[in-house]
Amino acid sequence: MSENNSGGPMRWDEHARGGAGGWVRASDGRTGPPDEPAPDPDPDSGRRTVPKKYVLLAVGGGLAVAAVVLVVAHTVRPSAPDAAHSAGPSSSSSPSVALSGSTETDPQPSGPPTASAEEQATAVDELLERSESDRQQVIDAVNAVEACASDGTVAAAGQALNEAAVRREGLITDLAALDVGELASGSLAAGSLRTGWQHSADADRAFADWADDAQGCSPGAVPRTSSYRRGVRSSELATGAKEEFLAHWTPIAASYGLPERDTAEL
C-alpha cells in the first residue's frame, strides 16, 4: 500500500479494524502500542566487520602453527624400536638377556683336578718298576755279545739292545707327561731321572752297534770297538744322573711308603 503524503505519513496499527490490523495515519488520534521498529534485514549489521585480509592472515597463521606442531610431534615421537626398548624388556628379548647373564656368571669349564702328592709319587714309582724290568734283558744281551757263541746269538743280542733303547725312550716320554708339582723337589727328581734314562738309551744303542761289530767273532775273542767304549761311557753318565735322582727320590718314597731303589735297579 503506498503512502499518501497529503494526509501525513502512514503507520501500521495492529489494533485497527477491530484487531485485524491496518495502516492508519500517523496523526490519527487512536491510541495503541507504539510502532515497533521494522525488522533489521541484516541481524549482524550492528557487528563490526573484520576485513577479509585479516581473516586470511589468521587462517594462514593457524595452519602454520598446526604444521609446526605436527613436525615437532613427529620429531620427538620415538621410533618403534626405541619405543619398544623404553617400554621395558619384552618377552622376546628375555632369552637374549638370560643368555648374556649366563655367559657372564657361569663358571668356565676347568681341566682335570690336580693329582695329590701321593698319586704323583705313585705314578713315578710305576715308571721305575717298568725300567727295572728291562735291566736284566740288557745285561743278558751284553753278555751274549761278549760270549760270541754264534753269529745268531750275537745278532739276537743286538736286536734286544735296540728294543731296550726304544723302551727307555718311551719311559722318558711318559715321565714328561707326569705332573710332579705337588712333590717336594719333584721337578729336580724328574729332571735327573730323565737324563739318566736318556744316557741308558744311548748306551743300549752303542752296545747294539758293538754287536754288529762282533759278527764273525770267535768265542772269548770279541774286539772292544769304539761302539763298545761309547756304550761304557754312556752307562757311566747314566749312573751319575740316577744317583742324583735317588738323592731327591728316596725321601719322597719314604714319605709315601714306596720301595727304595738303587742305581742298578734303574
TrEMBL record:
Domain of life: Bacteria
Region (Disordered): 1-49, 80-123
Sequence ranges of Low complexity compositional bias: 80-102
Regions crossing the membrane: 54-76
UniProt keyword list: Membrane, Transmembrane, Transmembrane helix
Protein name per UniProt: Secreted protein
